[in-house]
Design a protein that fits this description.
With about 450 residues, the protein is α+β, with helices and mostly antiparallel strands. It is about 35% helix and about 25% strand. α1 links the parallel β1 and β2. Pfam families: Biotin_carb_C, Biotin_carb_N, CPSase_L_D2. It is an enzyme of class 6 (ligase).
Length: about 450
């Protein structure tokens, strides 16, 4: 096992990684921006280095500052968490070239899956189902229209280099496509430095289901179940659960097998997620994208499998066997996670501010991964995620009951908070029944 680890991230995921690393006897180093100096993750690391101002480009996305911190502290490895530089192939390569251990997949796999069009083509060649869509970037609005004519409206217009639900829009007809093409292309150029656009079939009623994979150091790829991620606002997830209430055993088996093939196709190592769209009407699933990193929602997988995915990441990076038997994985119970954000529960607009009250819920099967505490401040510089509330029960009914109690018992004052939204969701028959899709939040508003 490696001996020292720099965590190139912030907030709850930095605390999460530090917690496991310290349990394993690994010295931990935090890096932080000026704005984050008072957050818990900074105090909980064995050592902490300030790397720049609040602007992420000058701190958490500043590869040079992070590598300098690793050198000055004698770090042996870097864990990128999620977001920021976690899926930056050039940064991963630079870490390795500096003689450090990169806790993640190789740069080649990151690069191969970073472009949605390239990823679709690779997956199709590997026998993984993909939704009807363009095999090449639509370089002009006219090319996008020709692709849409073959696919059929409505279509999804996507930034090929995008991720996390950003750079996506639906076009119902040719006029809408021309407008959305220009919008998405401009957004992609600004955000990702790549204006490539993908045209793909849009499914009006669809579920978003992903598979957790782990590429072991010996080349095997293991699937650790699926996660249902269909409760979303602006194509970004709010609630995740496992097992998915939508899948039959045959479909689940086919989905997990396809995810393993996806990982094998790119020689995947470490933790990753194969995201798919599931059409309940036809019992069909289609590859959406692969996230070449740890996911925000990984705790629900940990709950039902009894594994620590961060530990498994560190074991793979150290060239060690997993702590579990890949051939004897079993699911126990049901787990649900909600993302507690500093945002208006009606319109989901960010509402940062100083936290005056922070009381976390407790109880059987309740876990909170938090990035903040009373006396700290949520700034507008970063994502609005304050904490993840995770519950685990013997079945979905017990998990829902525990989640209702936990949502009611989570007290936060100061910034805006979306907890009232979850209370509303948990009383909605559509969600309680498990028969919901990605349009559920829109139907609530």
């Amino acid at each position: 096992m490696l001996s020292s680890l720099l965590v190139a991230n912030r907030g709850e995921i930095a605390r999460r990684i530090i917690r496991t690393a310290r349990r394993l006897g690994i010295r931990t180093i935090a890096v932080y921006s000026e704005a984050d100096a008072g957050l818990p993750f900074v105090a909980e690391a064995d050592e902490a280095v300030e790397i720049g101002p609040a602007n992420p480009a000058q701190s958490y996305r500043n590869a040079r500052a992070i590598l300098d911190a690793a050198k000055s502290t004698g770090a042996e490895a870097i864990h990128p968490g999620y977001g920021f530089l976690s899926e930056n192939a050039a940064f991963a390569a630079e870490v390795i070239n500096h003689g450090l251990i990169w806790v993640g997949p190789g740069p080649d796999a990151i690069e191969a899956m970073g472009d949605k069009i390239n990823a679709r083509n690779l997956m199709a060649a590997a026998g993984v189902p993909v939704a009807p869509g363009s095999k090449e970037p639509a370089r002009t609005a006219d090319e996008a229209l020709r692709a849409a004519a073959e696919i059929g409206f409505p279509v999804m217009v996507k930034a090929a280099a995008g991720g996390g639900g950003m750079g996506m829009a639906v076009a119902e007809d040719a006029e809408g496509l021309r407008k959305q093409y220009d919008t998405v292309r401009g957004f992609a150029e600004r955000m990702f430095g790549d204006g490539s656009v993908l045209i793909e079939r849009y499914f009006p009623r669809v579920r978003h289901i992903e598979v957790q994979i782990l590429g072991l150091h010996d080349g095997r790829v293991v699937a650790l179940g699926e996660r249902e991620c269909s409760v979303q606002r602006r194509n970004q997830k709010l609630v995740e659960e496992t097992p998915s209430p939508a899948l039959t055993p045959p479909v689940r088996a086919a989905l997990l097998a396809a995810a393993v093939r996806a990982g094998e196709a790119v020689g995947y190592r470490n933790a990753g997620t194969v995201e798919c769209l599931f059409d309940p009407a036809g019992d069909e699933f289609f590859f959406l994208e692969m996230n070449t990193r740890l996911q925000v929602e990984h705790p629900v997988t940990e709950a039902v499998f009894g594994v620590d995915l961060v530990e498994e990441q560190l074991r793979v990076a150290s060239g060690l066997e997993p702590s579990f038997d890949p051939g004897a994985l079993t699911v126990t119970g049901h787990a649900i996670e909600v993302r507690v954000n500093a945002e208006d529960p009606k319109r989901f607009l960010p509402g940062p501010g100083a936290i005056t009250t922070w009381v976390e819920p407790v109880g059987d099967g309740v876990r909170v991964d938090a990035g903040y505490s009373a006396g700290t401040t949520v700034t507008p510089s970063y994502d609005s995620l304050m904490a993840k509330l995770i519950v685990h029960g013997a079945d979905r009914a017990e998990a829902l009951a525990r989640l209702r109690a936990a949502v009611a018992g989570f007290e936060i004052a100061g910034p805006k908070v979306n907890l009232p939204f979850f209370a509303e969701l948990l009383d909605r028959p559509e969600f309680v029944s498990g028969d919901y899709d990605t349009g559920i939040v829109g139907r609530m508003r």
